[in-house]
Amino acid sequence: MTEKVGVLGKKSAQRTGVERVVNAPLPTVYGKFQAVGYLDHDRGDEQVALVYGEIGTDDVLIRLHSECLTGDAFGSQHCECGDQLDAALRAVVAEGAGVVVYLRGHEGRGIGLLAKLRAMALQAEGLDTVEANLALGLPVDARDYGVAARILEDLGVRSVRLMSNNPRKREALVDHGIEVAEQVPLLIPPCENNITYLRTKRERLDHHLPHLDAVVSSS
Questions:
Q1: Confidence band for 214, pLDDT divided at 50, 70 and 90
Q2: Nearest to 31 by CA among 83, 102, 95, 104
Q3: Domains of the chain from N-terminus onward
Q4: What class of enzyme is it (predicted)?
């Protein structure tokens, strides 16, 4: 906990860490979730965990979903994010219990919306997603999963079955004290508009995407 000096010279506490702010029922087309809202005092981001059913503490099926306005809201086929969010929500409902943590501030692997659009423009000119970020002088992946781990801890989750193709997410959760009992593939059939992007994720970002083998061999 740090302190700051107020306008009258008195010290006032400045909150740090992740605070649960609200818990509200959220009926969706997938099922009825509880939307648990958090404030990340360190970064200023508002976060939400969608909780379905009685999740317990161990081997909870979860998805850490990085915010993607273009994919999640606009149905962009540049990536598979919107389809992954849809699949993850359906999966926890089918499981009977689970959590989807929607991580704001992760747009474009952490570089922000406008920077992501600039990177997409460079990709349209022939660069891959890694090259585009580097050409803009930006990190390839600037995401931090500490807030996700703190949210899971607040929900009482000790170990998870992580829906992700990205081994770095698993490593990040483990580094932040959350046991990953299993990494569950979340594979979305590629389309013409995202096959190059997905190949780059596999070849340069270590994503486990075995379903691309058939597409690669037939191209």
A1: confident
A2: 95
A3: 36-106+143-206 (3.40.50.10990)
A4: hydrolase
